[in-house]
Write a structure and sequence with these properties.
This protein has a two-stranded antiparallel ribbon with strand order 1-2. The protein has a two-stranded parallel ribbon with strand order 3-4. It contains 7 helices and 4 strands; from the N terminus they run ββαααβααβαα. It has helices at residues 42-49, 60-68, 83-88, 97-106, 109-112, 132-145, 150-153, and strands at 22-24, 30-32, 92-94, 115-117.
């Protein structure tokens, strides 16, 4: 029997489980309280997105914003990170805390010390779904953030 990940757990009108709470309605009659819904752990939802953009080009707005700063991302293609990549790297910087936490759950003890947040104290804002100006501001923030790492990584 498969479990519904959305958490509905059954059909409408199904018998209430023994001992389930009852609540009075507007007329003083008792009515069953709906069963608690089961929600998947956040980690499970994130895992569903891993590899989602594999081999995809950068977003056109990202390409334009980078171009304005003199960077060419026209041939860029997304890659799924692997344990081999983590082993190879000296430092791995993520743009947001959620990605950093995901990497911490999949990497080895040897690699966890290589991981860090790009802006060290905050996430880089996600411009997706916003106008070109937000993409431009984000690109400038990313370029400015390189000063945090240049001397340390050289």
């Amino acid at each position: 029997m498969s479990r519904d990940l959305a958490g509905s757990g059954g059909r409408a009108g199904a018998a209430r489980p023994r001992g389930a709470a009852r609540q009075p309605d507007n007329h003083g009659r008792s009515r069953p309280q709906p069963p608690a819904r089961h929600h998947p752990e956040p980690k499970q939802r994130r895992r569903g997105l891993i590899g989602k953009w594999q081999d995809q080009p950068a977003n056109p707005s990202v390409i334009k914003a980078a171009d304005r700063l003199g960077y060419d991302l026209s041939t860029h293609r997304a890659q799924q990170i692997t344990l081999e990549m983590l082993d190879w790297a000296d430092t791995v910087l993520t743009m947001d805390t959620a990605v950093l936490e995901t990497l911490r759950t999949i990497c080895t003890e040897d690699n966890v010390l290589k991981l860090g947040l790009y802006l060290s104290d905050r996430d880089v804002p996600d411009p997706m779904g916003q106008d070109e100006e937000v993409f431009n501001d984000c690109a400038v923030l990313i370029e400015t953030g390189t000063a945090l790492h240049i001397g340390r990584l050289a």
